Amino acid sequence: MEATERQTKHRKTALALSIIPGFGQFYNKQILKGLMFFILTVSFAVAFADLINIGLWGIVTLGEQLPRDHSIFLLTQGIIAVLVILIGLVIYFLNLRDAYLNGRNRDLGIPLNSVREQYRNVADQGFPYLMLTPGFFLLIFVVIFPILFVILLSFTNYDLYHSPPANLVDWIGIQNYIDIFKLDIWRDTFLDVFSWTIVWTFVATTGQIAIGIFLAVLMNQKDLKFKGIFRTIFILPWAVPAFVSILVFAGMFNETFGAINNDILAAFGIDAIPWLTEPFWTKIALILIQFWLGFPFIFAMVTGVLQSIPDELYEAATVDGANMWQKFRGITLPMVLFAIAPILITQYTFNFNNFNVIYLFNGGGPAVSGQTAGSTDILISWIYKLTFTSAQYGKAAAITMILSAIVIGVALWQFRRTKSFQEEDMM
Amino acid sequence: MSPKMQNTVRLTLSYIAIAIACVIILYPVLWIVGSSFNPGDSLSGSSIIPKDATLDHYKSLFNTEESDYLLWYWNTLKICIITMILAVAMISCMAYAFSRYRFVGRKNGLMTFLILQMIPNFAALIAIYVLAYITGLLDTHFALILVYAGGLLPMNTWLAKGYFDTIPKELDESARIDGAGHFRIFWQIILPLAKPILAVVALFSFITPFTDFILAQVILRSEEKFTLAVGLYKMISDQFGNEFTTFAAGSVLIAIPISILFLSLQRYFISGLTAGGTKG
User: What residue of B is the nearest CA neighbor of A235?
Assistant: First the structure.
């Protein structure tokens, strides 16, 4: 065995020959497979040569000459070219690997698979890929492609004045990021929006969690009656689609005909409050609305946890002379928080990106003079406005990158602690 | 205070707190229902229980010449159902492959999914808009369905894969010995056993597009293509207050069926969310 291994160097020869795809397989006397690799590579090169050529030129230059070149088309083609090249490299790598492995088998004196066995092997090993293909294809086009596009866009000056087909778009490096942090007008707006986003996320989420836990604990008392009805009522705000509730609230808080000013506050003799025109009051209203929208979810989760806490714990605490508050602090709260911790973090990231409530309630307004963002805009709704009202695509993309970095940072930190990440089977 | 008194005080306080919560929850609901029966277009001078209640607003919504409401409803249901079928089919295939096979690229594929599920898919809304624009898919339901289905894949594949992992592998192996092929094992053994998680995935895939506003707002342009969320927003933002009562009737007609669907299936929701750790 050892002697034969030293004598032959099939693996190296096969690998070297495979630099031209298929020839390593010919050397291994697997004519059919070699032909397939060869034909695949040649047709790949022929079919995509133009696309790759134009795409790579386009993504580097973003067009040189008007009206022939459309920068955004070229950018798109460029991304497609890069993806196609990646797929080509995968095929090429598989070709090298196959030639090497079969060459090694020959070195070791292991007989190679016959054509029939090869076919069965491909069918067997190919099955998972077959199952994954449709989903991955969709994912590449509607998720990965847009992400790549945004990343690249954030390094261009694509805006109203550099917008095809009338103008060309250019690469400007990290100028967008520098502008956001250096130019006064951008920095001030960014800081305003960012600080409100943080305050909003923190206050609205913490409040809805506190209310949810409080009501769940309240409802969990053994001697309470009509629990079923009350629980259903408490879940109701979650059951109604959020966009409906938010629009209804926009009507209720309306300053001319809304029920809050006209009916409720008037009944207590309180003057009308400018809910939609005064930034401070809009913020209060938004936070209150998010409490209403968000607590039922926490309520439902905590109710589930509470029912799984064994009664013995409370009985033991009673024997030790603990009062209600001590039992809550010592037993209920830690167990609940531990059980729903991952969900709580997603609640924070959800509100961080809660476009619906901000945009549907008051469009991010009231407006601030001289700024592209309204006084209650959070990052995601500001991005929306930059894209659709001021056509600042490049800046919007840069802010999207900042936002994504924050969200991914939080999510990674969270997922390192969850089970699915640590599962040995995953790897 | 005697223990009995203490109990009475505790219960009374609890009932008061619950009553306040119920009022706060139910008031907007009653207000919008009341508004929908109010005569006239605006709400000025109306009361929560209208004196001369009318069904006019409901009738005008159902009148296809006067309003696109029914069309929006139909669009929404169409988009949601197609998205659901597409997403469930792809997700079950992918989850099966990830759960049962060990292949080159599996680890990287799973990692990709894990990272992708962290980014909400509307974060790339500029790209989605520009791409839909240059591919000529702007203002089509097709684009919207693709974006919804694609956005659902990462998280729900993880969810389904987690459940598939709990189905004993001995079942596949014995079927394989009996001569069943890959696809037959998937179709006749795994899928029937995975019904609970498929129900959860189907529910998410239906509700997510139904309640989405931002992507529909980005992609859809012409009024007869709108979904309910975009249409309702347009109804209220065009001439705020002037059509408020019709808007109210429209809201009620969305809220009632969805709430019933939701309340009757809420345990599926909760089980799915607990497993996925994410709000849909």
Answer: B263
Give the best residue of A149, A420, A424 to mutate against chain B (max B CB count within 10 A): A420
The answer, for B142 touching chain A at a CB cutoff of 8 Å, is: no
The domains of chain A are located at: 2-153, 180-426
Q: What is the pTM of this model?
A: 0.85
3-state secondary structure chain B: CCHHHHHHHHHHHHHHHHHHHHHHHHHHHHHHHHHHHCCCCCCCCCCCCCCCCCCHHHHHHHCCCCCCHHHHHHHHHHHHHHHHHHHHHHHHHHHHHHHHCCCCCHHHHHHHHHHHCCCCHHHHHHHHHHHHHHCCCCCCHHHHHHHHHHHHHHHHHHHHHHHHHCCCHHHHHHHHHCCCCHHHHHHHHHHHHCHHHHHHHHHHHHHHHHHCCHHHHHHCCCHHHCCHHHHHHHHHHHCCCCCHHHHHHHHHHHHHHHHHHHHHCHHHHHHHHHHHCCCC
Pairs of residues, one from chain A and one from chain B, whose beta carbons lie less than 8 Å apart: 259
CATH architecture of A180-426: Orthogonal Bundle (1.10)
Domains, chain B, with CATH or none: 3-54 (no CATH), 67-276 (1.10.3720.10)
Q: Which of A144, A142, A143, A146 lies closest to A154, judged by CA?
A: A146
Of A4, A2, A5, A35, which Cα lies nearest the Cα of A20?
Answer: A35
**pLDDT level of residue B163 (50, 70, 90 thresholds):** confident
Query: If you average pLDDT over residues A59-77, what whole number do you get?
Result: 83
Chain A residues with CB under 8 Å of B273 CB are 297, 301, 343
Question: What is the value of ipTM here, to two decimals?
Answer: 0.88
Best interface-test mutation with B: which of A97, A265, A307, A426 has the largest number of B CBs within 10 A?
A426
**What is the model's pLDDT at position A313?**
86
Q: Between residues 9 and 68 of chain B, which touch chain A (CB distance below 8 Å)? A: 10-11, 14-15, 17-18, 21-22, 24-29, 31-32, 35, 42-44, 48
Of chain A, the percentage scoring pLDDT greater than 70 comes to 96
Query: Which residues in chain A are closer than 8 Å to B247, comparing Cβ atoms?
Result: 247, 251
For residue B219, give every residue at least 6 positions away whose Cβ sits within 8 Å of its Cβ, in sequence order, or none.
Answer: B128, B129, B132, B137, B138, B139, B140, B143, B144, B147
pLDDT (tens digit per residue) in B66-87: 788 899 999 999 999 999 999 9
Residue in B72, B126, B137 to test binding to A, most A beta-carbons within 10 Å: B126
Least confident residue range of A20-24, B201-205, B211-215 = A20-24
Q: What is the pLDDT of residue B48?
A: 67
Contact flag B122-A250 (C-beta cutoff 8 Å)? no
- Between CA A315 and CA B271 the distance in angstroms is 29
